[in-house]
Design a protein that fits this description.
With 105 residues, this protein is of the alpha+beta class. It has a single domain, classed as 3-Layer(aba) Sandwich (Glutaredoxin). Helices cover 25% and strands 22% of the residues. It has three helices and five strands. Strands 2-1-3-4-5 form a five-stranded mixed β-sheet. It is globular and about 35 Å long. The mean pLDDT is 95.
Amino acid sequence: MSRVRITVCASCPAGRGGLAGLIADAVGQDAEVAKVDCMSGCTRPSSVAFRAAGKTAYLFGDITEADIPDLMIFLGLYRRSPDGNLEDARPIGALRLKALARIPG
């Protein structure tokens, strides 16, 4: 199973408020969490991306600390999916309405 990298925009409001650290605490050793200065999701801050080798990548916007439980559900589904695509997005709750992009692997 390929390692999942979660990237958090450090210049977005939640990013400046420590979102990457909160996500890192929630995922433990299940994924790598990184910050970047800007993810160009400025019209729908705060931005978080999920990527793994050979899988579809996802970019989410409008993320707040309240979304962490849904992000963890997404992480579990994403890790178990062979290509990164979800058959049913309903388990990720409101997060499914916050997807900005799905980038083929």
